[in-house]
Design brief:
Largest sheet: 7 strands, antiparallel
Shape: globular
Distance between the termini: 40 Å
Order of helices and strands: HEHEHEEEEEEHHEHHEHE
Number of helices: 8
Strand order of the largest sheet: 1-8-7-5-9-11-10
Radius of gyration: 18 Å
Number of strands: 11
Strand content: 15-25%
Oligomer: single chain
Length: about 240
């Protein structure tokens, strides 16, 4: 594996960009993943009707820090809805060809999917959920009573993964980005994950929450827990959220 990172940067340089599947007329992949199971789908509170306190952007940036210890105060379902909107909210679906969201993405491809490990959210049963950004809903992925412990284990047994009110897990659906950008699209997926997580940090300030981003996890294990294959879709980033 020596030199793998350097090789990746070399082989994904723009000069090696080949004609994409989009350019050759291949149909584009779906704008979001759906149907993760036959468990309930929950309508989330309308983010346009959720009121949060005003937060000065400069102060939010200055106060931004990673917080790993949280109070036992639950996150409300309205607050979770607000955070999901700030990190992946769909402002417009453009003719079925693209979505415009609250975060930037290369070519408006938005390859990321959001999973939520709910540990302490009022009005929401504990468990693993998948965010349906188009429609602003949550579908339950697993009612396995050991799901939190399994995700914690995959995150190198970092305890705050389960003492958080909610843990955000972002995956990337590779072809959604590769359809336009080929192998270079892998770079863009990682850039997009950074945009999303920074929005989580800043938006959490308005609801007195702290956030801690996590990049230390066993890739194969966490992909398996989420029921994704690790190739066409794979976990790219994790972050915990809880009341300060």
């Amino acid at each position: 594996m020596s030199g793998a990172g350097k090789d990746f940067m070399e082989r994904t340089k723009f000069r090696y960009l080949e004609r994409s599947d989009q350019a050759t007329g291949h149909p584009q992949p779906p704008l979001q993943s759906v149907g993760k199971g036959d468990l309930p789908v929950l309508e989330l509170p309308d983010p346009a009707k959720i009121t949060v306190k005003g937060t000065d952007l400069r102060k939010a940036i200055e106060r931004r820090t990673s917080i790993r210890s949280y109070s036992r105060e639950p996150l409300s379902l309205e607050e979770l809805s607000y955070l999901l909107w700030c990190t992946q909210g769909v402002k417009e679906v453009a003719g079925g060809a693209a979505t415009f969201r609250t975060v930037p993405s290369a070519g408006a491809r938005h390859a990321l999917e959001t999973y939520i490990l709910a540990n302490n959210v009022s009005g929401l049963e504990n468990g693993l959920y998948h965010f349906l950004a188009i429609g602003h809903r949550l579908e339950k992925v697993s009612d396995d009573p050991q799901i939190a412990a399994r995700i914690k284990a995959a995150c190198l047994d970092q305890g705050f993964v389960v003492t958080s009110a909610a843990t955000f897990i972002w995956s990337a659906v590779a072809y959604r980005m590769k359809w336009r950008y080929g192998e270079r699209g892998y770079r863009y997926m990682h850039l997009d994950a950074g945009h999303v997580c920074q929005n989580l940090y800043l938006s959490a300030e308005a609801i007195d929450c702290g956030v801690c981003a996590i990049a230390a996890f066993q890739d194969d294990e966490i992909n398996s827990v989420l029921g994704i294959d690790g190739e066409e879709e794979f976990v790219i980033y994790v972050a915990t959220v809880g009341k300060k």
